[in-house]
Amino acid sequence: MVDPAGRNSFTMHSRVYRSRKAGSGAVLNALVADSICGMLKLGTPGGVARLEMTFLSAHPWEIAAPAALIAALAAVAAWLLLRKRPTAEELERARRQLLSQSGRIVDGMLLDVCEVEAADGRTLTMLLFSYRIGGVDYECSQEITHMSGVVDAAQVRAGFPCSVRYQPGHPQNSIVVAEEWSGLRAGLPAQHEYQYPEPADLSHLRPGRG
To answer: Which fold has domain 88-175?
Structure first.
């Protein structure tokens, strides 16, 4: 645009660039680069002012890569929202399987079998037990609601010894029974009866005494 003062001017990004006339024609000796639109150039070839715009071409992969990334993120987010979450019973079964395969065994004691009401209204059968590791006593519980085929809650006796499997590094994570393993014992260990020896005959050491 040419203003009455005889100056060539144009506006770009809220900035005004001007150049004064030099000699017989106005020449703008500046190149203004724009990262989006390209490059604007103003010159007077043949004595006629002309505004040129050069566009920078983008490669197809530069456009496809962000689109693919956004699509992948959207797919992952949809999978996390719509996937089937494991139930509490499935999580407990997975915990039993892990401990039965890799847990360490220690001697414990059965404390009690009781029923408690869960937050969702279900009635859970809990097996209470205790054990000692490294001088520390632990009292834990295990749900046996759906393990009637493995353990009979009516046959569990408080005060009976048992074997406990616990997770190394997390000894509070422990079980007494699992589908593939059981730490319950049929009864108390047998006590061997002590046989007193026959009294020795010492009559020969006491002559004259019958």
So the answer is: OB fold (Dihydrolipoamide Acetyltransferase, E2P) (2.40.50)
